[in-house]
Amino acid sequence: xxxxxxxxxxxxxxxxxxxxxxxxxxxxxxxxxxxxxxxxxxxxxxxxxxxxxxxxxxxxxxxxxxxxxxxxxxxxxxxxxxxxxxxxxxxxxxxxxxxxxxxxxxxxxxxxxxxxxxxxxxxxxxxxxxxxxxxxxxxxxxxxxxxxxxxxxxxxxxxxxxxxxxxxxxxxxxxxxxxxxxxxxxxxxxxxxxxxxxxxxxxxxxxxxxxxxxxxxxxxxxxxxxxxxxxxxxxxxxxxxxxxxxxxxxxxxxxxxxxxxxxxxxxxxxxxxxxxxxxxxxxxxxxxxxxxxxxxxxxxxxxxxxxxxxxxxxxxxxxxxxxxxxxxxxxxxxxxxxxxxxxxxxxxxxxxxxxxxxxxxxxxxxxxxxxxxxxxxxxxxxxxxxxxxxxxxxxxxxxxxxxxxxxxxxxxxxxxxxxxxxxxxxxxxxxxxxxxxxxxxxxxxxxxxxxxxxxxxxxxxxxxxxxxxxxxxxxxxxxxxxxxxxxxxxxxxxxxxxxxxxxxxxxxxxxxxxxxxxxxxxxxxxxxxxxxxxxxxxxxxxxxxxxxxxxxxxxxxxxxxxxxxxxxxxxxxxxxxxxxxxxxxxxxxxxxxxxxxxxxxxxxxxxxxxxxxxxxxxxxxxxxxxxxxxxxxxxxxxxxxxxxxxxxxxxxxxxxxxxxxxxxxxxxxxxxxxxxxxxxxxxxxxxxxxxxxxxxxxxxxxxxxxxxxxxxxxxxxxxxxxxxxxxxxxxxxxxxxxxxxxxxxxxxxxxxxxxxxxxxxxxxxxxxxxxxxxxxxxxxxxxxxxxxxxxxxxxxxxxxxxxxxxxxxxxxxxxxxxxxxxxxxxxxxxxxxxx
Length: 835
Hints:
Blueprint: E1 14-19, H1 22-25, E2 30-32, H2 34-46, E3 71-73, H3 82-90, E4 104-106, H4 113-125, E5 135-137, H5 147-158, E6 167-169, H6 179-187, E7 197-199, H7 207-218, E8 232-234, H8 242-255, E9 265-267, H9 277-304, H10 320-324, E10 337-343, E11 348-350, E12 356-358, H11 365-378, E13 382-388, H12 391-400, E14 404-408, E15 415-419, E16 425-429, H13 430-439, E17 450-455, H14 458-467, E18 473-477, H15 485-499, H16 504-517, H17 524-527, E19 531-534, H18 580-592, E20 595-599, H19 606-618, H20 621-624, E21 628-633, H21 644-654, H22 667-678, E22 683-688, H23 697-712, E23 716-722, E24 738-741, H24 747-757, H25 764-775, H26 785-793, H27 799-808, H28 811-818, E25 823-826, E26 832-834
Parallel strand pairs: 1-2, 3-4, 4-5, 5-6, 6-7, 7-8, 8-9, 10-13, 10-14, 14-17, 17-18, 20-23, 20-24, 21-22, 22-23
Antiparallel strand pairs: 11-12, 15-16, 18-19, 25-26
């Protein structure tokens, strides 16, 4: 049988079939007898003669094979004699072998035993072998204690040969307490230092192996000659004790911030005993952090690599580096150009009588995502950062020398609406802004070259920046909570063009054309009036950004950020609204009091308020100055569930503030560890639905823990949610409980929440029409009888009830609700009659 010289991959699947000739060897499914395997060995030895000519074996038919076979698999054939396997393996590495270019060798499931497996491993590791085997699978081969395999590892470690293996599978080989597993652990810094994936699953390994692995990994720190490139480790199905896993996780955490630590995937499934929930959580979070650092280091390496210019082969050598072949210094990346996005989202404003009035919250998520997508697509060396709009943060941005500013928030006919640093509004007048910017000028030049204003009454704010000396200002009139279709189309096209280096004038025109051509923007000609480029007589035919292209955006060293993520916080509540005043009052209680309790019945939105407040604080770390927020959702105590205090301890471990301990550890020691880690921090601890612990010993433990927090720390604040005051005070706590009673939503916010969730409404315009129809202040008072009737139908202002009504209301009931304002009388029995 003739085998084409162009064949580049030979894969022998020896599995559940009979073969008696070379033809059958190349068939899809086969089992090989001893004689057939021996024939295969002879074929591999005799395919080439010394001159590389074609030869024959076992057949009068000529066989022609090109020397480019890359993979060989003989699997699940334990009936083949081991001596035949040994002879076969010895034939692999010869200079005239057709498998001399072998890269992948799979001999799994053949019960080779220790000696034969050692022979194969020696061929794979030998520097004198003509093959460069990168992937070797010796799983399920009954290696046992592996004394011969161990000797192979030790020998090649002693001669300092160049590591070749990238993937090694030694799963299910019954290592037990044998020395071979420990030798594998030791080899990750020498013989296996180039190996990225190792599988030792199902080998009956004990905790001492984890100890050895941790110690060997630690040997790489600060030692360039002991590098470990392992990324994936499968040690599932073994017998690691809980304490040994804790020790390994602690060591892993200590190593996780070192540049040599590349371990990103560790499989500990089906361990006996199974990992405890806190151990699995810590492992997942450590590995996730490792993966992020590994990718960041890889990108940094790419960015710092030299960009060598190609020269013509006939060009005359003109420098020492040309002659010696030495590489020139890597190209220096220019400092990033920057744009800062300031978002203003005050919660309330106060009138002359000191009464608070809520300010409807803007949804910045869509705008943030859009800006991120624009700069990511452009992939230029531009640093995009976010902050909240206070005068202090504006001054900080000016001091840092940011080139461009994007302001988004509420507008006002006479002032800019900034935040006051504690959730209230700061009416920032035109004169105050001019004075602040004038104070930031250097040599008469304004601190910003460009400002984008996205707000209602944006023309006033834009002109204020112009009057303050800013040479280029774009205004985007924003009249609703969400960016509408015109604003989205303009902003996307404008910033993408600007990031690519187009002039401000051209980018502005591109943005307007995007509005005109958008399928989602009705009355496009009218919508165009929303956008202005100021000053009108200015010279805008210049680029704002001239940044060079980068291979990946953002660059890790740029510090580009969204608001800092906090994995312990729950997802922001969907459709959360109408709680601005409650959030403001609770926020100021948290800032000024150390123990705050949000109290209300189930379904009133306590958890949603706490979650929204935590995200609001987390997005304002530069202003509100909490270092960290730790959020614990409490559930009723059950067997096997982690206690509240241990859950907090685990979050501190994940944040890198504590080391792993056994969850069966002494509670006093755990509390002491927490106190030590938090003592010099300004942190917020949140315990949600604390009533779930009522009557349990865990409730007593938590009360004791809170007392310890207040006694032994100065700047740790606690927020809890409950259905009542938890009644701690006097001798029990040295800090008083500040209670915030949470009541029903207002009538208007009840309708608005219903409209947000109701599946019978399909657009923001339909939602607004329903809201206006049912709640217009010009026509109806919130306390009139029909308003009360509507509020009762929609759940009485209890958010959970409103949510349920919205999704359960039929089309007929919805149509009746829409027409209810056409009925003007309510009978004594509560029914409504037409006029």
